[in-house]
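Following up on my earlier thread - several people asked me to post the actual chain instead of describing it. Fair enough. Here it is, all 362 residues.
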Amino acid sequence: MGTFASTIHVYTRESIPTSLGSFRCFSEGWQTMLPVEKAIIDFESDKKLARKLSKELPYPILYFWEYDSDEFGFVLFCSGKQVTIFGTDPYTEAKGLFKLPEYIGYPEGNKRRLSRILSCTDIEYSIAMLEEYFGVCLEVFFDLLDMPQDLIRTRSDEKFRAYLEEEKRFTSKDAGIYVELTEEVFGKLEDNPVFGDFSRPKQHIFYLAQFHTLAERCSPLPAVEFRHGKLMPADGSVIQKAKIKEYDDPRFHVEFYPRTTVTFSDLSPAPYRSKRFTALPRGYYPYDFDESDHLILENERGGIAFMNSNGELIAKCRIKGCLMDYRDGYFLTDKDGCFDPHGWGFDPEGVLRIYRIVERSR
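Reply from S.P.:
Thanks for posting it. Predicted structure:
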């Protein structure tokens, strides 16, 4: 089970009655509910508490949550009503985001800034920019209460401007690489031909479900192979000989704490062997090597990045959907990936996308 954390903040300079809980002002204009040590943090209970506080207090209440440093979201309550909601998880539908700035004292011109922050594919940096936007520390943990100076945040746009400059540098026409969409296919991908088969998937081999209604759904699903930028029918000999893709890629070893680093083995392309990269873009992880031996990085929010053998970032791109495979200079994505909102083998809104890597001529 993953780690869940949540915080509650009241947008006011006024003290909060102790009968409603223990609050402290770490950042100007906000009162933060002090966390307590809990064996289990209940998402729904904390959210209900934030809603209840908004009924008792005449101020906006910000409820923030984070799961495993991979997903985050927030809800703004006013007078017991949920006026804004956002989440990076597949279950949450964003609502009322353009109303949020006026509730926390921003003029009209900050709606676009909020949208850019929330579209950032780097979870860690997105939260840091949100803290800068709100002017309050969103990650207030029990162990940090003895270091209140580390919980101070002020409203600014310094991190946001730095983010825009980086995006411009690595996503503009001056970047060395970009991706282009070459094809969209209706359907969704499964790892196995029949429901309940939990055998491990084979590299570049998938099972394609293309049913518009549940009544049409049947099994076994046809096998397809991803090669040369196409999903092609896979015959039995290809399926049997396909290599099992290991969870840990033997070409590199990844360490995630305190900062993502990657050490390359002798199975990596020659320019990388015995090297160690310690400055990967925040939130990105090694995925593969492209046809020009650039290191391909991915993150959880549709971000793709490329680094050269010197550990220098070359370009950052965006793709839609969950990255399922890379081969022959092409990416394959599925709208929902391993998440099955409609159940196994069926998604009436399923979309598979194929992207081609393009290197700009110099």
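Residues 43-56 form the longest helix (14 residues). That should answer part of your original question.
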